[in-house]
Automatic annotation (TrEMBL):
Residues 280-309 form the 4Fe-4S ferredoxin-type domain. Keywords: 4Fe-4S, Electron transport, Iron, Iron-sulfur, Membrane, Metal-binding, Transmembrane, Transmembrane helix, Transport. Coiled coil: none annotated. SUPFAM superfamilies: 4Fe-4S ferredoxins. Residues 1-45 are annotated as: Disordered. This is Cytochrome c oxidase accessory protein CcoG. One of its GO terms (molecular function) is metal ion binding. GO terms for cellular component: plasma membrane. InterPro entries: 4Fe4S_Fe-S-bd, 4Fe4S_Fe_S_CS, Cyt_c_oxidase_cbb3_FixG, Electron_Trans/Redox, FixG_C, Helical_ferredxn, Ig-like_fold. The chain crosses the membrane at residues 55-73, 107-128, 181-199, 215-235, 365-383.
Amino acid sequence: MVSLDISHTRHRAPRQEAPAPQPGARRPIPARKAAGRRPSGPVVPQSVKGRFRRIKWTTLALCLAIYGLLPFLRWTRGPGEPDQAVLFDFVKGRLYFFFVEIWPQELYYVTGLLVLASVFLIFLNAVAGRVWCGFLCPQTVWTDLFLAVERLVEGDRRDRLRKREAGLTPRRVAELGVKHAIWLAIAIWTGAGLVLYFGDAPQTLREFATGEASLLAYSWVGIIAALTYTLAGFAREQVCTWMCPWPRLQGAIWDPEALTVNYRDYRGEPRGSAKKAAELRAAGEPAGDCVDCLQCVNVCPIGIDIREGPNFACINCGLCVDACDSVMTKLGRPTGLIAYESWRNIERGRSREPQARRVIRPKTVGLAAALVVLSGGMGAVLASRTMGGLTVLHDRNPVAVRLSGGAVRNGYMLRILNKEGRLRSFAVRIAGIAEAKAAVVGPEPVVVDGDSTAEVRVTVTAPAGSEGALRFSVVDRETGAAYAADDVFLPAP
């Protein structure tokens, strides 16, 4: 059993302490005390180079390109239909996504997508923890972008800390002005980019440029811009640690076999400088590979020390892996002191047991199967759905009328749904009761405009004593497509 201390870290075995220094020698600063010397205030991460940083730059560019360019992609749907590939059309009440068109009556598809996304996040958590948070989450993507601007204008971590402590100067004020101006420009672009998904993108962009857009559109741009500017510029690590519910949820479903960022303490402890470690090893005493350089802490966008154990705030971005590997390479030591490793393997390493990575295990197989089943089910439902529909409402008062000739008549209201963009004409049919006859109150065939619904009243007359189920159907006179609905025929009292 492994317990999770969600307030801070998972407890690890006590560290071995380095031998006491010789009299007169300078006592090294303990690791915890050194870490405590980090400046207070917002986290100021240092830039780093490495494979995970390259992956993050690639995903950042890809996510921003998709977000900014997707509204401008075109998709031909036919006459009278919008040609924007992805569009949330509130006027018609439609959601367009390439070849898929979702009506308000089909919001269960959106529910299915939310369930699918939840299962996918749980699957990612079982494989690699909060890897979504570290690479693909919008908060992470926009924070990385804002940090890149900050480094470009103010310099790297050491320069920013120095300038923050030095106070305001004309040059400092100018730098802050440039930085915040760029941040605001990115935030406004973000707000405008989101609004483009709710109307024809080129036209909406022209309206923004000429001042012809609606007050509602400008208001939403302002709201999204303010949120982006605040969350990515000032509340970075607070969002990932305290505002987002996923750290708490992933802590509850934490898997010790997941490949998360971990510190191999059985190799790194006891910590000490490279020179001291060489002296201890020459004397046959234990010495770890960690030189307590704090690079893993300095590059962390959340500001945690991964060496203290798995922390619920860690977003598994891998930047500390890049920082540690670069230090190990310079020292000529093996890389991987901090790595994507399962907690189970950390425990195996402490007890010198054989290690094994179990990415494929019952939990991941089950979640992958659930993803396949959910995706296949939604795909099958989408493939089999029709471009129309029919609902029937029986008259309530009176439910049946006895005619002078003895026959009985029931009345019904038929609502015909036409999901196609063209006008369609339908013929009304009934089945289920012998000798029953249907009559449409109004013009026949029934004409329904494209992308709309129409109601038509229908009376059904049957001989006295007739009673039972009725099946109504409307048939497209051009294509033969039929839509049906069931109701009952009731006798007169």
